[in-house]
Structures are given as structure tokens and as C-alpha cells.
């Protein structure tokens, strides 16, 4: 039996090899320096052009517009999620009629701009005013806020349906076979086995869709809804100060960053059992 008579003396750490300065790295450094310069100029402009009177006068209007924006996005996301489930089921259905109807809906609303859809709802449905009054829903479509909510809902429902369909299809088929082998009803297996796994897969795309909807909600200002962008347009029309749009951008950026961190925390909580 052999054994070591002497220990190997400690060796110094390997010398760090300097990375060569390539063209790509140099271009990256230049772009970062340019963006840092722009950020510094932006901060200087905000501080130098700060007007307390304007902030005091239009600050409450910005907060009111922020509340309108958040309420529009929150309600449209929830309603769109409720609508996306039957759409996703229709896309997964073996019935060609249901599949093609759902596909046509999703194809149209994903392939056309939200602004065009908003105009079709706000201006186009006015052609059918007598019919809408006959069924008692004209009160809904004559209001700009409801039209904006309806357009955002049907738009995000198409995106959420495709997200959900892809997430459901990503769940291994063996999960369904195992549930069937245990005698679990298909509906219960879908609700308690397939759907929870699919929602974890769809969590990050859902967050991206909500962020896109927050930024896309600014289009409702065109149809006189006084959301955050609508109040910004009002403030600019009274002051002609471009910083009104700068403050709106800061508000939108703050919302997106808050949502991004919240979504990352939710994802960490829900997928902590998957970490190795």
C-alpha cells in the first residue's frame, strides 16, 4: 500500500490572461460610452429645467392618468385571459371548424396594429348604432374608455391564446397518459396537472405581453381617453415644454421596471422546486 511522504507545496494562482481588444469589444465600449453620455445629458436637462410650478400644476393630472392607464391594462389583461382560454382550447380542438375560427381570430388581431383595431371599434361600430341601441349596448360603445378597454381586451386575448396554446403543447404527453392510467377524468387532469405546468411555462411570455400592453395602451389617448399619455398631451398643449413627454417616459419606465421585478420574484417563487 502506497502513501504520500511529502505534500505538494501550494502553487500560485494562474496568471490572468488579458483579453485582447477586438473590434467588437471596442465598438461595444464606444456604444456604452455614448449611451452613458446621453443618460448624463438627460439627467442634467431634467435637473436644469425643473419647474416646480408646472410640477405642482400638472402632477395631479399625471397621477390621474397613471390610474387610468393601470386600470385599463389590469382589466383588459384579466378579461383577455378569460377569453384566451376558450380560444386556446379551440386551437387545440380536433374540430376543424373551431380550429379555423380561432385561428382566424388570432391571425387577424395579431397581424393588425392595435391602433387600427381601436379605430375600427371607436369609429367603425358607430355605423351599427341603431342595431346596438336595439340590443341595449350602445352605451358601452359610445364611451371612449370602454372602446379602448374593448380593443385592448380582444387584442391581448389573441396573444394570450397563442401563449397558452404553446405552453399546453409543451407539457409532455406522458402526463396525460399517466393521469389516464390512474383513472383521472380528463377535465380534472387538465385543471390540476396540465394547466398548472403550462402556466409556469407561460409565465415569462405573459409578463412580456403585459409589458407590451402597458406601452401599447398609450394609443387610447388618440380617442380622447385621458390616460397617462392623454394627460401628457394636455400638459404639452398648455406649456409646449418637451419635458412633459420626458416625465411620461419616466412614468412608463417605472411601471415596466416595477412589473419586471415583480414578475421575476413570482417566477422565482413558483419555480423554486425546479432549481438544482
UniProtKB/TrEMBL annotation:
GO terms under biological process: amino acid transport
Pfam families (UniProt xref): BPD_transp_1
Top-level taxon: Bacteria
Bilayer disposition of the protein: Multi-pass membrane protein
ABC transmembrane type-1 domain mapped to chain residues: 66-263
GO cellular component, one term: ATP-binding cassette (ABC) transporter complex
Keywords annotated in UniProt: Cell inner membrane, Cell membrane, Membrane, Transmembrane, Transmembrane helix, Transport
Transmembrane regions: 26-47, 67-88, 100-125, 137-158, 210-230, 245-266
Annotated compartments: Cell inner membrane; Cell membrane
GO terms, molecular function: transmembrane transporter activity
NCBIfam families membership: HEQRo_perm_3TM
Family note: Belongs to the binding-protein-dependent transport system permease family. HisMQ subfamily.
Protein name: Polar amino acid transport system permease protein
Annotated source species: Rhizobium leguminosarum
Amino acid at each position: 500500500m502506497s502513501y504520500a511522504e511529502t505534500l505538494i507545496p501550494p502553487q500560485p494562482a494562474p496568471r490572468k490572461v488579458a483579453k485582447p481588444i477586438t473590434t467588437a469589444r471596442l465598438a461595444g465600449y464606444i456604444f456604452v460610452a455614448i449611451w452613458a453620455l446621453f443618460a448624463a445629458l438627460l439627467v442634467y436637462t431634467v435637473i436644469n429645467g425643473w419647474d416646480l410650478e408646472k410640477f405642482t400644476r400638472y402632477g395631479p393630472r399625471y397621477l390621474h392618468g397613471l390610474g387610468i392607464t393601470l386600470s385599463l391594462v389590469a382589466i383588459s389583461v384579466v378579461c383577455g385571459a378569460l377569453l384566451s382560454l376558450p380560444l386556446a382550447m379551440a386551437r387545440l380542438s380536433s374540430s376543424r371548424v373551431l380550429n379555423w375560427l380561432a385561428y382566424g381570430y388570432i391571425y387577424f388581431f395579431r397581424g393588425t396594429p392595435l391602433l387600427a383595431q381601436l379605430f375600427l371599434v371607436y369609429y367603425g361600430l358607430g355605423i351599427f348604432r341603431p342595431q346596438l341601441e336595439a340590443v341595449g349596448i350602445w352605451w358601452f360603445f359610445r364611451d371612449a374608455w370602454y372602446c379602448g378597454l374593448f380593443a385592448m381586451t380582444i387584442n391581448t386575448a389573441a396573444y394570450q391564446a397563442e401563449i397558452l396554446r404553446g405552453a399546453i403543447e409543451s407539457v409532455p404527453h406522458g402526463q396525460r397518459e399517466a393521469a389516464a392510467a390512474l383513472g383521472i377524468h380528463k377535465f380534472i387532469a387538465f385543471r390540476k396537472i396540465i394547466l398548472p405546468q403550462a402556466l409556469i411555462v407561460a409565465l415569462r411570455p405573459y409578463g412580456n405581453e403585459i409589458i407590451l400592453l402597458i406601452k401599447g395602451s398609450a394609443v387610447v389617448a388618440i380617442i380622447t381617453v385621458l390616460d397617462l399619455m392623454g394627460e401628457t398631451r394636455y400638459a404639452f398643449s398648455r406649456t409646449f415644454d418637451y419635458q412633459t413627454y420626458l416625465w411620461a417616459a419616466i412614468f412608463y419606465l417605472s411601471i415596466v421596471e416595477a412589473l419586471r421585478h415583480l414578475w421575476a420574484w413570482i417566477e422565482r417563487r413558483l419555480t423554486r422546486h425546479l432549481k438544482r
